[in-house]
Specification:
With about 400 residues, the protein is of the alpha/beta class. The chain has 2 domains: about 190 residues, Rossmann fold (3-Layer(aba) Sandwich); about 110 residues, CBS-domain. The longest helix is centred in the last third of the chain and has 20 residues. It is globular, with a radius of gyration of 27 Å. The two termini are about 45 Å apart.
Length: about 400
């Protein structure tokens, strides 16, 4: 279900006459620098279109000046759009009056900024209650909701302390808890972790992913850090000069960059920490134990020139493996394939990273089975050692090329 939909959204900063000339120059593919020099107007966002699904972490990524922070402020109308539409649950908030917009901001969305914005003379609990307090929520209810948000963020123990008693990472967790205490449907996060030390930042990314698993909010997350985007984003929109260059999953953007800009932007990423089992798996050569006997299994091995088959049932649920020796023994002893089934096969989920797969396959005598855990371990394919080594080698080769350039 689509939660947020943005259509033809444009923001140009400047006088109306300047905006019209600037719009025409954008259409003519002029650069932001040329437009500023000629018109005095600045293109913040131009003709942006995207949608965000309910419960999705949608990352908007780009370098400084790309328009990403302007875009998130257009979504909640901190900045007024020049043109275009912004729909939340089908309601066009670009056309709401001030009172209607205030209600949407109070009940539909909350924002978490880079600077923590905590009140130094309020306790952690009082800081977390603040949004509910200004909405007029009764003290007992707002305390309960704030405590629940702090508990979800692992901060309830610190509720009576003050911001200066907490580390930067913990302060940002309070900022996140404060936003969640309002129970918003949409969470807007503008460079929320960029002021933190790298180690703390990574911990916050992990916590956001874990927290999202509990609260399942719709999150629009702004960052300039590609690795952060790849780590937390379900999908990513990459911006340049106020326009979206590409929207897709991290894997889609890495494997099929839309243009040279995207290709250059992502070229220094360690793909082994982004690409998954699904990207490198190959079709499994299988035997269906509900139907096949030893003769069929041996015939398939001969025709496919392999010495082992992956055993499944009619529903393609993984059962194990059958080797040529085992099938021959079953034929000799008039047994079924179930009698000689080897259930010792390592399984991995389709979204396991290549960097995590390598230690598993290094000593494995068989390929790894890629399964869909949400569908009764249905077999999707197998990962062979050669595919992993090839993927790791490609990453190494790319890094060496970049080092030599």
């Amino acid at each position: 279900m689509t939660k947020v939909k943005v259509e033809n959204l444009t923001k140009i900063f400047g006088k109306k006459q300047q905006q019209q000339v600037a719009l025409q120059m954008v259409k003519e593919k002029k650069s932001k620098t040329d437009i500023v020099k000629e018109t005095g107007a600045t293109v913040g966002v131009y003709d942006v279109n995207f949608d965000v699904k309910e419960g999705e972490i949608f990352v908007i990524m780009g370098l400084s000046g790309s328009g990403k922070s302007t875009l998130i402020r257009l979504i909640n109308r901190i900045i007024e759009p020049t043109s275009g539409d912004i729909y939340i649950d089908g309601q066009d908030i670009a056309k709401l009056d001030k009172e209607e917009l205030r209600e949407v901001r109070r009940h539909k969305m909350s924002m978490v900024f880079q600077n923590f914005g905590l009140f130094p003379h309020r306790t952690i609990l009082e800081n977390t209650e603040y949004g509910l307090e200004i909405r007029g929520v009764e003290k007992e209810e707002r305390q309960q909701r704030a405590e629940k948000a702090l508990e979800n963020s692992g901060l309830l123990t610190f509720k009576d302390q003050y911001p200066d008693q907490l580390s930067g990472g913990m302060q940002q967790r309070v900022g996140l808890a404060r936003a969640l205490a309002n129970d918003p449907e949409i969470l807007l996060m503008d460079e929320a972790f960029s002021a933190l030390d790298p180690l703390i930042r990574r911990e916050m990314q992990d916590e956001l992913i874990e927290l999202q698993d509990k609260v399942k909010k719709t999150i629009i997350f702004i960052t300039h850090d590609l690795n952060e985007a790849l780590r937390i984003g379900d999908r990513i929109a990459l911006m340049k000069d106020g326009q979206i260059m590409q929207i897709g999953t991290g894997e889609e953007i890495l494997t099929n960059p839309a243009n040279d800009y995207v290709r250059e932007f992502v070229e220094d990423v360690d793909r082994s920490k982004v690409l998954t089992a699904q990207n490198i798996m190959v079709p499994a050569i299988t035997t269906n134990l509900d139907i096949d006997g030893p003769n069929v299994a041996l015939q398939r091995m001969r025709s496919e020139e392999v010495s082992m088959l992956v055993a499944v049932n009619k529903k393609r649920e993984l059962l194990g493996t059958i080797t040529a020796d085992a099938a021959a023994e079953a034929r000799k002893n008039k047994q079924t394939l179930h009698d000689v089934l080897d259930k010792n096969i390592i399984t991995v989920e389709k979204d396991m990273l290549i960097s995590d797969i390598f230690p598993l396959i290094y000593d494995s005598p068989t390929p790894l089975a890629v399964v869909d855990n949400e569908d009764n371990d249905r077999l999707l394919g197998v990962v062979i050692r050669g595919s992993v080594i090839e993927a790791l080698a490609e990453t190494t080769d790319e890094n060496e090329v970049m080092d030599n350039e």
